[in-house]
Amino acid sequence: ATQEGLITIVERMCLLDVLVESKGPKATMRAITVDSPEVQSRVAEAMAEFARYRARKGIITKAFVRDNAKTMPPAQWWAIYGKPHICRVAERVLAQPVFASAEERNWSIYCQIMSKVRNRLGHGVADKLVYCHALKRNMSCNTTCYTKDTCNTRWHLVAFFGSVGR
User: Which residues have C-beta within 8 Å of that of residue 112, sequence separation ≥ 6?
Assistant: First the structure.
């Protein structure tokens, strides 16, 4: 299951790379899937790079590289010593937040919306209400009650829209 999960993540991130690099019309972008040849070739290259990393072949054999892995931030280490395809995957994985506060906050809002009184709301409507509530809260960041020290717009976007997917 772990190997399948790794392959799924690498496939999705390689798909994202191919979509970002494709400059064709939107119809072409819609035709690109995980099973597309260009995505699968990129996945094969990334998995080959990962296999070389796991087998400790190439630059990984150098002592200073292993020492730097212990002292450098992981994203920086991958940017310097990683191969192109697996490096992008590692950077994206390392950039993900390691906390669940955004999800917990959304579930709290969802529980407030889906109360015993509103038990007939569909999931789609409830999701939209959670999104609107989070958007309203984020927009309140621009009011005078917030100062620059207490409001970081990027943080609010991640915190409130991180798990909503909009």
Answer: none
